[in-house]
Write a structure and sequence with these properties.
Blueprint: E1 2-3, E2 21-22, H1 50-78, E3 88-94, E4 103-105, E5 108-109, E6 116-118, H2 121-126, E7 130-132, E8 137-140, E9 152-154, E10 156-159, E11 166-174, E12 181-188, E13 198-203, E14 213-217, E15 233-234, E16 249-252, H3 259-264, E17 268-275, E18 278-285, E19 308-311, H4 317-320, E20 325-332, H5 334-337, H6 340-346, H7 353-359, E21 368-379
Parallel strand pairs: 6-9
Antiparallel strand pairs: 1-2, 3-21, 4-10, 5-6, 7-8, 8-21, 10-20, 11-17, 11-21, 12-13, 12-20, 13-14, 14-16, 15-16, 17-18, 18-19
Length: 380
């Protein structure tokens, strides 16, 4: 086969090739071994090697996992339980001269390592450590013993009734304070701690000028690094008792929520709600107590944000808090109040805690609780 080129290929219209080109008959020859087609654009996946494809695929999977994890975390942090209104009715009242009749007296040395002897009921009555009248109930540290080389006497009482849920309203007229003191008003199941949890409603140590610290203590699996609605300052988010020496997850109140400032204002009311949605603690100064708080049908949904909010978002409340008794006591020294970095540094207290407790009875003149009445409400 041959053809004659047409047109001006060379100078002056002449072709630079021979006039006749001969082509081999049949199809074009096949590609020879080692031939590579011209490379395509590097960004196109069709031109990627298997190694690159695997690497990119792995990176995409990791990115998707991160995106999903972040989305779940953001969603979880934005979740908030339904604290809708519950209809509470009065269940139990602790008041008047018989206030302590419904409490058991703990005896012996303090489980928290305090430098204190807890006295039984007859001894507490004889020493005036507990007393009750029509208007108030008092629990105090002994000041009659000048020298107490093995620890000073005090009282610790635990309600005979236990509760899985409810609204607990505490009228508190005076809180204990002073170097070496560790008072608390709390809820727990003493026979099954920490499995059934602990709610420290009112607690402080030494001079107690920084206010009340509301704290939860639980077994593992209760955390508060979630959305919360509260007036207090968050102090910790892991409620597990095995974290940082059982510090719990605490919320710090203002200075007037405990101690000298609280007492000077005539005290106030603490209300604690324990329900499946979470645990909330309100504080109302004496001059601004809502009318329904101590009434027949209290309604927490109208009280605004609480001092402390412990939602059930990352803490199954019903699993961690059961059979709660009301406990009130005044411990001395111990692992918190007596720790040097707390007793000396934060409390600005003299000498050692043990020496003060043993040899200075007058230092505990203000180490007493005074309660009006306690009321427990539950849903009908």
């Amino acid at each position: 086969m041959s053809f004659t080129p047409r047109g001006p290929f060379g100078r002056r219209g002449k072709s630079s090739f021979s006039d006749t080109v001969h082509l081999a008959p049949g199809p074009p020859p096949p590609y020879t071994e080692g031939y590579a087609p011209p490379p395509g654009p590097q960004w196109h996946p069709r031109n990627w090697s298997r190694k690159v494809l695997l690497a990119v695929g792995g990176a995409v999977v990791v990115l998707l996992v991160v995106i999903v994890a972040v989305a779940v975390t953001v969603s979880k942090n934005n979740r908030y339980p339904d604290y809708s209104r519950l209809d509470y009715v009065l269940k139990d009242t602790y008041s008047g001269p018989s206030f302590f009749d419904d409490f058991d007296y703990f005896t012996g040395y303090d489980p928290t390592g305090g430098f204190v002897h807890y006295v039984d009921r007859p001894g507490s009555v004889a020493l005036n450590l507990t007393s009750a009248s029509a208007s108030s109930a008092v629990l105090r540290v002994d000041t009659s013993e000048i020298s107490a080389p093995t620890g000073r006497r005090s009282a610790r009482v635990t309600s005979k009734r236990q509760y899985d849920s409810g609204l607990f309203v505490f009228d508190v007229k005076h809180t204990p304070h002073g170097c070496g003191t560790w008072p608390a008003l709390w809820l727990t199941d003493p026979a099954n701690w920490p499995r059934n949890g602990e709610i420290d409603v009112v607690e402080a140590v030494n001079a107690a000028t920084t206010g009340n610290q509301v704290t939860l203590h639980t077994t593992d699996g209760c955390r508060m690094a979630v959305r919360r609605k509260q007036r207090g300052k968050q102090m910790g988010t892991n409620c597990f008792n095995g974290t940082n020496g059982n510090e719990g997850c605490a919320v710090q109140g203002a200075p007037d929520t405990f101690g000298p400032a609280f007492n000077a204002n005539g005290g106030g009311v603490y209300a604690t709600e324990l329900r499946a949605a979470g645990i909330r603690v309100w504080f109302f100064p004496r001059a601004s107590i809502p009318a329904d708080v101590m009434g027949s049908t209290p309604d927490p949904s109208r009280w605004g944000d609480p001092l402390a909010d412990f939602p059930s978002t990352d803490c199954p409340v019903g699993q961690h808090f059961r059979n709660q008794s009301i406990v009130a006591n005044v411990a001395l020294c111990g692992t918190w109040a007596g720790a040097p970095d707390v007793y000396n540094a934060q409390g600005a207290c003299p000498g050692t805690c043990g020496d003060l407790v043993a040899n200075n009875a007058s230092a505990f003149a203000n180490a007493y609780w005074e309660f009006g009445e306690f009321k427990v409400y539950q849903t009908g």
